[in-house]
Each structure stands twice: as C-alpha cells, then as structure tokens.
Structure prediction request, 277 residues.
Amino acid sequence: KSLSRSSVRSRMSLKPPKAYNSLQKGALIWDPKPLQVKKIFEALKKGLNEYLEAHQAELDYLSGRHKDTKRNSRLAFYYDLDKQIRSVERYIRKLEFHISKVEELYEAYCIQCRLRDGATNMKRAFSLSPSTKASRESLVELYKNFQECTEDMCFIEGALEVHLGEFHVKMKGLVGFARLCPGDQYEVFVRLGRQKWRLKGKIETDDSQTWDEEEKIFIPNLHEKFEIKVTELRGLATILVGVVTCDSINFFTTKPQAIVVDITELGTIKLQLEVLW
Prediction:
C-alpha cells in the first residue's frame, strides 16, 4: 500500500480516547461510510470557507478604517483598532489551518477507500478463477489488505469528527394552533448518537411557553442524525405525539438555522429549533 496504517495514524497525532472512542469498544465489525463522509466533508468545507470569507471581509473593513484613523484620530482608538486587526488575522490563520487539516484527512481517507475498492475487486477476480495454492495465498493477502484499509478508514473518520465543531441548539417552542391549550405540558427528547437532551415545557394562560432548558450543545457526528421525540404529559400518563429524524448536513453554516419540524404526520404540531454551528 502506498499509505500504510502507521503513516496514517502518525500523521493524525490524536489521542485514542477522544478521536477513536468508537474503536475502543473492541468492535469486530468495521463499517466505514464513504458516501456519508463525502457529504459531510463537502458541507464542512463549505461552512469553513464561509467563515473564512466573513472574517476576511471584516479584516478588509478594519484595515480600511485603520488607514483612515492613522492620520487623524486619537492614539488610543488607533491602537484598539490595531488590536482588533491582529485578533482577526490570528483567527483567519486558525481557520486556514483547520481547512488544510480537514482536506489532508479527507485526502488520506480517499486513498484508503480506493485501495480498499481495489482489494475488493481483486478478491472477486481471484475467487472466480481456479483455486490454486498461489491464488489462495493471494486471497489471504488481499483480505488482510482489505481489513487494514477498512480499519484506516474508520480511524480517519474518528479523526475527522474531531474537526466538526459544535452545534448550539436552542429551543424556540411548539407550534400547534388549536392543538396547544393553556395548561398542556410536553416533554421533548432530542438525541444525537449517545448525546441526549430532555426538556419539559408548559403552555401558559397567555399562550406563551416556558421550558426548563433553552439551549444544549451537541458534538456533530458523521453518521448519526438528530432524533426528536415529543410526548404530552397528562398526570401520570404520557401520550406520544410523534417521533422524527433530522439530518444535520445543512447546519454547517455561519448563520443560525431556524428549523421547523413536523412532529405529527399532518403537521398539526410543529417543533421550532434554532441551530448555530
């Protein structure tokens, strides 16, 4: 292989408990998802470039003011502006490094994916040919290469997840028109992989809503979708209103995303959330 396992992992320089926690359970089944990783990578790179463009525009604006104030302004204001410029420049350098690291990981991932596909095709070809000692030895070697590539892809997926940032999810309330009445109580349960958020709310007499929590931070996951479950609380009984899933691929953007999810099949009750990446 042109890129060995040791070289892949040494270039990542990440601590196993954080980057590879999914591999620490002793799981025997390796199941990389190249198509999903490609979608997340493209969304992530687009979002990072949006942040880079926004901060570059801010830097250009501050630099213009910096030139104007150098000639005719107070010295304290000039130095404060200079401090802001240096701060934005540092952040831009961090963004550029972040983008280059993500691209490097995805490039290594694609190499391993191609090597894995090649091993699969060769295994198929050997299995169709007459069985000989040489062909059996080749099949054993190909299987070993396939397993190593699969393992590398899973390690790189774990390393890429470290660079996905955070989702700040805000509860904006339920919308139900005639379905929501004063005194009604609801429980909303949001799950992303192993991360959970359970909150309870009540419809007040003035139709406003109060919730015991308003915001939760989720760590993005390459393969998991948001699962949202809403139940109505009636004394000791609970009535399921609906369960939906929501893909997070559109959340990698600089602007807060307002989300309205149909909880019931007919859309009579909707859940409003806001996600900031």
In short: The longest helix spans residues 75-128. Residues 1-7, 13-29 have pLDDT under 50 and may be disordered.
